[in-house]
Amino acid sequence: MANAYISGTGFYVPPQVVTNDDLVKKYGIETSHEWIVQRTGIEERRFAAEGVGTAELGEHAARAALAAAGLQATDIDMILFATLSPNYAFPGSGVLLQRRLGVAEGDNPRLIPAMDIRNQCSGFLYGLYTANAMVRSGAAKHVLLVGAETHSAALDLTTRGRTVSSLFGDGAGAVVVSATDEERGIQGVHLGADGRHAEVLCQKVWDITKRPFVPLDDEGRGLVEPDHLWAQMDGRKVFRHAVMAMSGALVDACTHASLELGDIDLFVFHQANLRINQYLADQLGIPPEKAVHNIQRYGNTTAATIPILLAESVASGKLKPGMTVGLAAFGSGFTWGSSIIKW
Ligand code: UT7
Fold first, then answer.
1. Ligand 1 within 6 A of CB of 121
2. C-alpha R_g of the chain
3. pLDDT of the residue at 19
4. Residue 1's pLDDT is what?
């Protein structure tokens, strides 16, 4: 059986920088740079321009990852697209990315499968689990895994929505998961979920048990109340569960890989809140220099946080071949996951 390794990484963030002060001055939100930095570590985030969507952000990241892997888009056997902010309710952004990459065009069209992954902040790890299984089983030689979000279009950028809207930003990260005979690569991916907390961090928009699924006005236009339109979150509950679930998942990943936490050279955690990751590191005795962060610059980009951070760490030389890397994420669902990769 082949091993699966990450043969290329890439990322893209849109150029528009939105600082914490911009949230106050441009959007009129009653918040402050100090409040946001103290509670979350976030200093700024990126917002995509009107007209730009999640598949487009994903395409930039995907092309960078393919170039880093030395591959053409036509070499890919499968696309996995993790997002909670797809371009449309359906179809998924995976098929839109496939179209953008042009693999279905020309004399030898490659009508490769494209699958969307709906696991929010854990989406990248759910995708890595799937990519690893596809490559190790021999079903695919190269899987393109993208995590991308356009949150800015669906944030309540008013004081009412500040608990959620001050946290999130737009961006995309991508990896190519490829087969290798070498003794390296993904040592396992460990996933978990606890649907008892499904509504603790949730954006309902519609309720499919209702007839019709959104209330209508007299002219047949949909009417969505603000608490359904925008994401709702019990932040404290998410915070507590995040620390517990990610630390448990990392310990599990080590046990399965017959490693100690101290054997891991670099920790790449989901970027939801710098404080969550500091608690996690404290609890597990991880020295600060072994963990990388970029939430200060991008906020929480949900499915994109880990692949962006991997791509940045490769580019900066912090992540080098031969290193052992630990990944962990937690988010809405609740869902969580961890992985250890021999890079
Ligand atoms: O990927 C997973 C996604 N989410 C997370 O990981 C989030 C995890 N949770 C958190 O990061 C924190 O719970 C938050 C940063 C979201 C909030 O921090 P907190 O210390 O738990 O604050 P809180 O929600 O308990 O709110 C405390 C106060 C409230 O005011 P009152 O009711 O005490 O008057 C909020 O209205 O802080 C207020 N508040 C804000 N004030 C200024 C909430 N958001 C803001 C804001 N600026 N942006």
1. yes
2. 20
3. 98
4. 79
**Residue 121 annotated in active site:** yes
φ/ψ of residue 265, rounded to 5: -85, -30
- Specify the pLDDT at position 320: 97
Q: Which stretches in the chain have pLDDT values below 50? A: none
Please work out whether the CB of residue 71 comes within 6 Å of at least one atom of ligand 1: no
Q: Into how many domains does the chain fold?
A: 2
Mind listing the pLDDT tens digit for each residue in 159-213?
Answer: 999 999 999 999 999 999 999 999 999 999 999 999 999 999 999 999 999 999 9
Long-range CB contacts (within 8 A, 24+) of 23-29: 23/157, 23/162, 23/165, 23/166, 27/157, 27/158, 28/158, 28/159, 29/157, 29/158, 29/159, 29/162, 29/165, 29/166
CATH code for position 89: 3.40.47.10
**110 assigned to some structural domain:** yes
Cα 163 to middle of ligand 1, angstroms: 5
Spacing, Cα 164 to ligand 1 middle (Å):
8
Cβ(15)–Cβ(44) below 8 Å: no
Mutate to test the pocket of ligand 1, among 19, 32, 163 (most ligand atoms within 8 A of CB): 163
In a domain, 121, yes or no: yes
Answer yes or no: do 173 and 191 share one domain: no
What is the C-alpha to C-alpha distance for residues 281 and 272, in angstroms, rounded to an integer?
A: 14
Q: Find, among 297, 245, 277, the residue nearest to 46 by Cα.
A: 297
Does residue 222 form part of some domain?
Answer: no
| Nearest alpha carbon to residue 96 among 115, 71, 76, 118 | 115
Q: Are both 109 and 239 inside the same structural domain?
A: no
The pLDDT, as a whole number, for residue 31 is 98
